[in-house]
Structure formats: structure tokens, C-alpha cells
Amino acid sequence: MKTILEKQGNFTGDNIEPILTEIRELFEGKKIKRKIFMVSNECLENICKYCDVYIDDDMDEGYLSRISIKQDEKEVYHIETGNVIYNDEIEDFTDKVDMVNNYSPEELRRAYSQTVMEGDIHDRGGAGLGLLEMAKRACSPLKYEIKKINTKLSYLSMKVDVCENK
Amino acid sequence: MEKFVRRASKVSPEINFDHNTNVFTMKGESRPEDVKGFYDPLMKWLDKYHGSLRKNTDENPDVLMVELFMDYFNSSSAKYLIEILAKLVAIHRQEEVPLKINWIYIEDDDDIKEAGEEISDMLDFPFQFSEVPE
User: Is the pLDDT assigned to residue A124 strictly greater than 90?
Assistant: First the structure.
């Protein structure tokens, strides 16, 4: 497994831009560039939009937001992210991912159309389409892992696999 | 009524919606942080444009020309892009004004091409697809 990119920090709308620029540069000239960019952008936007969680100074550095892109020997790119989320948001998130993972390609297309046509843009700017967009680009189900930090917060790790031929 | 014009930025597209020529173009990348703040004024402009067409039935345009040449748009922008096009399709259907939507994409950019095909399906309106070299 080759690590192509690895970043961690307190991601905000402003400081994700250099990461996205770097991703573009790293994949310049490769056909998969757009797909990697699309998924990375949705992942980073999700971190910024949904995780306005304050991390206090006492919290372990391991709980900073992160993104990495790794390439395995089968030319599959693994886009992995991590961020702190509120415990009361976990169920909604995992339900959505589980549902998206169970969709057939046709159901995914229909769910996407329905969300686009009927869903509202909520205050934080999301349209509820990010996970569907990721699933459309991914070549295997979306994966997640949740580690409880305390009664209020958990750390969410996510992995999206992207392949050239899907 | 004034034209709706926005310059391109790193995260937002160039927009030129001209009610005098009825040519509506969008080009570039769309992933503004405040997607609502960016697109709501355009939605309002389109409502005003529709209203002005109704008042001036004698001056109905021959054809509405839409040209979209997007490099990338995030999922929140997709929602707005579809709403903008849905408004134009509604104008075409309600006011019986001809409409052409040209979806331009860079050769081999299958993702953007497919996105255009999906949007065309969702709106039940045929797009013209134009491939341009990188």
C-alpha cells in the first residue's frame, strides 16, 4: 500500500483549499484525477459542514480531522477521512450510510434524483447528497468505524474506495 | 432588469445570464462554501425574468439558449444547477418558448458527461452534448 497524501488538522472551509489543490497536482494527467477530487471534496466538505465540534486543548491529537489517500497494488485508491462527531449524530449518519450501501446502482440513481428534486439545502449548506455522490463514485461499499471518545463525542473514520474502471 | 453576471473564482463558476439575448451561460467549477448565498440571487433573477416574459408577450424571444461548461460541481451545487435548469424548462413549457440546453464537457470526462445525462433525464428534457478537447 502506497501513501499518496496524508493530512491532519482542524479542517475548515479555508484550509481545505490547499489540500484540494495538492490532490489535483498529485493526480495531474491521470484519468482518475476527477473522481479522486470529487470524492475528496465531498469528504472534506462533510467534515467542515457537519463537524463544527470544538476540540479542546486536552483532547488527544489523534482526534484531529484527517484525510489520506492510499493506493494499493490493485490500483484501488482508498480515500480515508477521520473527524470528531457528536454522539447524537451517529445514528442518523450510520443509518444513511447503511441505506446507501444497500442500494443497487439503479436505486442509488433514483435516490439521488429524488433527493435533488425534493431535498432542501439546509443551513449548513448540505443537500443530503454527499453520501450518495460518494457511493456513486466508489467501487466498493462505503466503510466507517466509530470510536467513542466520551459521553458527548466520538471519532468517525470513513473509507471510500475509488477505481479507474467504475 | 439587469443582466446577471458573476466572474469565475476558484470555487464558483462564471455566470452570464442575459435577458436581452436570452443566452444563459455558466462555466467553471462550483463548490462555493455558502452555496445558498451564491445561487439564491440567481434563482430570484430567473423568477423576475420569467415574470418579465409574461408581461411582454409580444416580445417573446425566439429561443432560450443555455450553455453549461462545468469542470466540476459539488453535490450542493448540483441541487441548484438542476433547479436553475428546471426553472428554464418550466419557462419553456409554460410560455411555449423554444429552449436549447448545450452541455459541454472535456473529452474523456465521463463523470461530467454522465452528470449531464442524469440531469437531462431528471428534467425530462433532451440536452445537446458537446465534447471539446482538453
Answer: no
Q: What φ, ψ does residue A67 adopt, rounded to 5°?
A: -145, 140
Question: Would strands B23-30 and B128-132 be described as parallel, antiparallel, or unpaired?
Answer: unpaired
Residues of chain B below pLDDT 50: none
CA distance A104 to A92: 21
Residue B108 contacts A, CB cutoff 8 Å:
yes
Q: Report the half-sphere exposure of A139 (CA within 13 A, side-chain side).
A: 15
Question: What's this model's pTM, rounded to 2 decimal places?
Answer: 0.87
**In A76-89, which positions are buried (b, 16+ CB within 10 angstroms) versus exposed (e)?**
bbbbbbbbbbeeee
| pLDDT for the residue numbered B60 | 57
Determine which of A25, A27, A116, A122 to mutate to test the interface with B (most B C-beta atoms within 10 Å): A116
Closest C-alpha to B31, from A67, A48, A69, A80: A48
What is the reported pLDDT for B73? 94
CA separation for the pair B74, A43 (Å, rounded): 11
Q: What are phi and psi of B16, to 5 degrees?
A: -140, 95
> What integer pLDDT is reported at residue A117 of this predicted model?
81
Spell out which residues of chain A touch residue B118, defining contact as CB-CB under 8 Å: 109, 112-113
**Cβ-based burial of A11 (10 A; exposed 0-12, middle 13-18, buried ≥19):** buried
CB A64, CB A43: distance < 8 Å? no
